[in-house]
Amino acid sequence: MSQRSGLPIGVFDSGVGGLTVLRELRRQLPAESTVYLGDEARMPYGPRPAAEVLEFTRQAMRWFASRGCKLVVIACNTATSAALEAVRDESAVPIIGVVRPGAAAALAASARRAIGVLATVGTVRSGAYVRAVRDLDPFADVVQRACPKLVPLVEAGRAGTPEALAAVREYVGPLLSEGGVVTPVVDTLLLGCTHYPLLREEFAAVAGPAVRVVDSATTTALAVREVLASHRLLAGEGRPTHEVCATGPVARFRDVARTIFGEDLPEVSGVALAGP
Predict the structure, then answer these.
(1) Catalytic pick from 69, 147, 193, 245?
(2) Residue 76 among the catalytic residues
């Protein structure tokens, strides 16, 4: 166990959105080394068939295994929804997804147990968030809405623009006003895609002060801490290392990340994911 504690945590996403989870992991677990993989070459995952997302995720998990990671976080909600159960059964290391931590965060924030989920087409189609919320609280009311315009807007660096605000209003408006006797209909918005926290200002502006806006980054990092602690795998003393890899053009990945986070990433390495 002690020999494995110094191994890195892997973080996987379809693009740059998972950097929101990576940032929270590094904040909560500053002694841990990390390896991030963004499958930018095949982003977005949301519109793809579930079987295709499963195969991409399997390829990524084999890549992380080759890097000797002690735990992997699937920071992509679509991949978590389509592939977590299968790849967890196939993996020799723990794998954590972002759906259940996100559901827990939404329930903790909601006073009326009235939750609106905003996610990709694939995540909404899977019903993963509805199941996760109701597994934790069978009496919760959950509605969901697919938001296909948002990931391309974030990846294009257009967060904070009137175009982004209009897209968020298009998706959030019906969740607040349709099908209920109380306004707003939901009291909590769960951002069910790791790209969406990068539009948090737009969500807050449209939702208003009566609606909480939550995502899974903080609770996912807490779940990672708990798993590592329970298996005595928390890193000890030493200088952590951090690596960022992308399957698409490295320069573009760095430019998008710089636009989103306002800071340069460490060196980004280009990699290719192989099939079976």
Answers:
(1) 193
(2) yes
